[in-house]
Amino acid sequence: MVSGRILSTEKETVDFATVYLKGTSYGGTTNQEGLYHIKAPAGDYTLVVSAVGYTKVEKEIKLVEGERVKQNITIAPETQQLDEVTIVSTGVSRVKRSAFNAVAVDTKELQNTTKNLSDALTKAPGMKLRESGGVGSDMQLMLDGFSGKHVKIFIDGVPQEGVGSSFSLNNIPVNFADRIEVYKGVVPVGFGTDAIGGVINIVTNKKRRNWFLDASYSYGSFNTHRSYVNFGQTFKNGFSYEINAFQNYSDNDYHVEAPVKNFETGSFNESEKVRVKRFNDTYHNEAIVAKAGVVDKSWADRLMFGFTYSHMYKDIQTGVRQKTVFGEKHRFGHSLMPSMEYSKRNLVIKGLDMVLTANYNRNATTNVDTARYEYNWLGEKHPLNSPGEQSRQYSRADNDNWNGTLTMNYRIARAHMLTFNHVLSTFRRDNTSLLAAEEQTDAIAKQTRKNISGLSYRLMPSDKWNVSAFGKYYRQYVAGPMAEDGTGSNYVRTSRTVDSWGYGAAGTYFILPGLQAKLSYEKAFRLPTIEEMFGDEDLESGDIGIRPEKSDNVNFNLSYSGSFGKHSVYLEGGVVYRNTEDYIQRNVQDLSGGKEGATYINYGKVLTKGYNVSARYSFGRWLSVGGNFTQMNVRDNEKWQIGSTGNSVQNLGYKARIPNVPYQFADFDVNFYWRDLWKKGNVLSVTYDNQYMRSFSYYSQAVGSKNNDFMVPDQFSHNLTLSYSLKQGRYNLSFECRNFTDEDLYDNFSLQKAGRAFYGKIRVHFGD
């Protein structure tokens, strides 16, 4: 038997904490005095202690037959903790006690690779990374059939909307995060967001650490350089600081298959592709994130002040389709963001916890398109009648973002919890032309103000089941320029306010130990984003009058995890249903002079139905193998349309797939570990992984998209990683080969990605 008392760092007893022996069915909960008792066969175990709002603790113990082991454990509060997370070797696990359909991606096994945060997310079921090119290219994450603006990004519970492209998931190294939580579809009130597709929460390491240093450098194909350093410490008096700094650079000069324009005839044959090298695609970014403050004080569990600076430069090689090529077009920008976070458990009264965050972001992006030549894919150039490869501009967009979040949790007795969350976000964009000798700023600024409030009640009568019910209120104010007529010769300031109510519920039940079912529903709303209303001031145009999306979301999930000696198994399956009205769709439109641009529209009704399955098997600390498969049907559900005469006509695309949306994809990985190789504490690991995507159309099936010219082909890529760690992970060397079979890989509107690439990385890690 093992028994003891669970105390908090405030020396208070922790009742209803979960205490169990890892990988077994032996366990229970603490009583009102914080006491627990567990009986189990003799042997070596890992004792796990977890409680809502506290950091999970694991401790190795040995049970001897006929003896009683006493083990008292102290657990510390954890800021922004949403629910217990259990990690299954090298991969993805359930956010276990949450009633919401959520998984957690463990980044620890990836920290010796050159992956960024968006690469790491591809391990989550139903997740697909969509890129328009190489390092620094435009990136979207697709989750269960929804992509881009439908999926919201958070860092430690703080929304990242409007922070600028110089600080985004595809240029932040994976080492930045301790884990990544993915909430699919229905989203907890604690995030205070209007996501329909789901939420991605980047969770950093907030544990108290004496001193630490994590630094790495990698070099690879296409002259790609990446470096990262993270260091900090917490002193005995509670003062804490942390510095994160990283950079990425790449020429992105890989080969693609593309049509070449003949300047003599002024045209080209799109079906005749030539193997060419990208020549105007250099990208680099630099960022530093600094934090300082105090922890573990009587008046604050955590009070931190931060400052983030980031900068980026990006050549623009293509338009929204690959046939369009640029030779001089580029953009650059920077972002400045001071921030503050404050958290306190048992504020004023016991059981009342508060988390308050605030940040201001000033980011500026300058688009430069002043070339006097047009280019083809061979790098040849031809004089233009007027400057500008797409549309003549040299302009700067200055964006100001304010964001504040307040989250209050109140625990009543041991089975009830109330959560209130409010998020306030404001945005202002001023556009300035730099073409003339004097700067000319547009007279009408583009502005938004968004308030989202939520209140939820959670009932947790036992470890076997819990249920949550919630309501949300959304309100958005928008103001900006709108053309008086179709000529666009004069603009006037217009404004509007929209608001909506949403609600939902979620529940989970452990049918058997290790076998868990989850069901959730939400009447959800998604307010239009800045890009959808105002565009990007370059290749995308927005619509200030675009309407919010409305959706009925249903998720059901069944998962099983269990251990049998050295064998561990994890199985999961889920189905999703989304009935969406006023679906916001990104379309490509043809412009004058053979140019193209992107625009956003509301598209009546869209129905999403699908499923994903995951499986993983581990053998001791030697082998881990697993994968995911996703099938999503995102279809046009609008039976009638308004015709040119104003009458209702039958929609030819009714029940057809929504274009440019992958609907079937999968991934698989195998990981081998040789521990104590050559010397105790050293580990050699070999990882093979692959990604498969079935072909899909980037034009509507209703207009004959079965033509191969409109299809993104089947794709099956393979990657290999070799890593060697010395002295318990203090020194690390790794080598990667991505797409080692050199497959042709495509994505958004058939834009081509890099072929075979090699990367090497060195990393050192000291301290806690």
From TrEMBL:
Per UniProt, subcellular location reads as: Cell outer membrane
Q: How does it sit in the membrane?
A: Multi-pass membrane protein
Transport among the record's keywords? yes
Q: Which GO terms describe its biological process?
A: siderophore transmembrane transport
Where does it mainly reside?
A: membrane
Gene3D superfamilies, per database record: Carboxypeptidase-like, regulatory domain, TonB-dependent receptor, beta-barrel domain, TonB-dependent receptor, plug domain
TonB-dependent receptor plug domain sequence ranges:
100-199
Keyword Signal included in the entry's annotation: yes
GO CC terms in record:
cell outer membrane
> What keywords are annotated for this sequence in UniProt?
Cell outer membrane, Membrane, Receptor, Signal, TonB box, Transmembrane, Transmembrane beta strand, Transport
Which family, according to UniProt?
Answer: Belongs to the TonB-dependent receptor family.
Q: Protein name, please?
A: TonB-dependent receptor plug domain protein
